[in-house]
Write a structure and sequence with these properties.
By secondary structure, the chain is low in regular secondary structure. It has 7 helices and 5 strands, in the order H-H-H-H-E-E-H-H-H-E-E-E.
């Protein structure tokens, strides 16, 4: 029995040695196991040697110095999900994105939403984007195309169709952009910047607010005749209007009656004047006969002679009777108008000094050194001597 057990044990020991010889204990095939950590071989069980196995060699799950394995990053190469030094991998930015020059997924780089390039809806230096104004193009998201043309935005402002203060500030000097940045210096108090300028620089039409120039337009009419010395004093706008100091003066451009010029006579020669609403006025000194206020002709009409307003040398005796003092007596005796009104009239009875005609004063100069004191005269004329002669 003991011999049998001894033989059996020797048999199994032989089998175990054969298996070890065939497979080795370090996972390699062939050769006997090396149970020594000698610094050169990778065939021992657990301990690393100098060059092979765990320390430098890539295996299934661990990273080594130079080679990419399954899941972990290595020094130079991109693996599945994790960024390395220089290259872009699947989801995460690498060394160049977002950087100064390139545009990656959805993060801005150095040139997007900056000074030169248009992005979504942020303004840049020169290009129009969605709804914000840029350097010199129209605000395509707010204003129509061509809005920079004065014929468009100027007319809309003057006619009250657009209140520019909403974007350009209450004084038109800020907000989206100051109007002063485009318009020439002094435009705010230059009346001819918005209207007039065709016949003179007073601001009186033509041109009117809608760009019209025809005299038969009530907004043009006799403006030029009034503001120039055409047979009478050249009248300032204040004779008929509340003259503004600049474009934003109260009651001027941005008021309750856009596109209309209210008639206000309070500061003129005819403070009692009335605008009839039909392109004509009444109760006017300037259209009276020198004694009583009168009504004007239609604003689009004309005045052809002196007798349109007051009796003249060619008028009838009955007409002369409506004049002050001894006008009729003198006219009957053939005394011409220029003999007593020499500062105003030429010898042919044409007006030589418009500034002295219809100026609110009586300009009298008697012949031969005669004296007129406003109510009587002392003079020798037409063969008679007047001494403190009442008029």
């Amino acid at each position: 029995m003991s011999r049998s057990m001894s033989l059996s044990g020797a048999f199994y020991l032989s089998i175990f040695v054969l298996l070890l010889t065939a497979c080795g204990t370090d996972g390699t095939t062939g050769g006997p196991p090396d149970f020594v950590n000698d610094g050169d071989s990778a065939d021992d069980g657990d301990a690393p040697d100098g060059d092979l196995s765990d320390g430098d060699l890539s295996d299934g799950d661990l990273a080594d110095g130079d080679v990419a394995d399954g899941d972990m990053p290595d020094g130079d190469a991109a693996d599945g999900d994790v960024p390395d030094g220089d290259e872009s991998d699947g989801d995460a930015p690498d060394g160049d994105a977002p950087d100064g020059d390139e545009n990656d997924g959805d993060a801005p780089d150095g040139d997007v939403s900056d000074g030169d390039t248009t992005d979504g809806d942020v303004p840049d230096g020169d290009t129009t984007d969605g709804d914000v104004a840029d350097g010199d193009d129209d605000q395509s998201g707010f204003h129509p195309a061509g809005w920079a043309n004065p014929a468009q935005h100027g007319a809309a402002f003057k006619l009250g169709e657009s209140d520019c203060r909403n974007c350009h500030g209450q004084n038109l000097d800020g907000g989206a952009r100051s109007c002063d940045s485009c318009h020439s210096s002094g435009w705010r108090n230059d009346c001819a910047f918005c209207h007039g300028g065709a016949d003179n620089q007073t601001g009186a039409p033509p041109v009117d607010l809608r760009g019209r120039t025809a005299r038969d337009e009530t907004t043009v009419g006799a403006h030029t005749t009034h503001v120039t010395a055409a047979g009478h004093l050249a009248y300032d706008c204040s004779q008929c209007h509340a003259k503004p100091d600049d474009v934003l003066s109260p009651g001027h451009t941005l008021d309750a009656t856009p596109g209309q010029a209210e008639l206000v006579f309070a500061a003129g020669l005819s403070p009692q004047g009335v605008f009839n609403g039909d392109a004509a006025c009444s109760s006017l000194y300037c259209h009276g006969d020198g004694r009583t206020a009168g009504a004007s002709p239609a604003f689009t009409g004309t005045i052809d002679s002196c007798s349109t307003c007051h009796p003249f040398m060619s008028s009838t005796s009955d007409a002369w009777a409506t004049m002050s003092g001894d006008h009729r007596k003198h006219l009957r005796e053939g005394i011409a108008c220029h003999e007593c009104h020499g500062p105003v009239l030429n010898d042919d009875e044409t007006i030589k000094a418009p500034e002295l005609h219809v100026n609110g004063q009586k300009n009298v100069l008697l012949p031969s050194g005669g004296v007129w004191n406003g109510s009587n005269c002392t003079v020798v004329c037409h063969g008679e001597t007047h001494f403190a002669q009442g008029w």
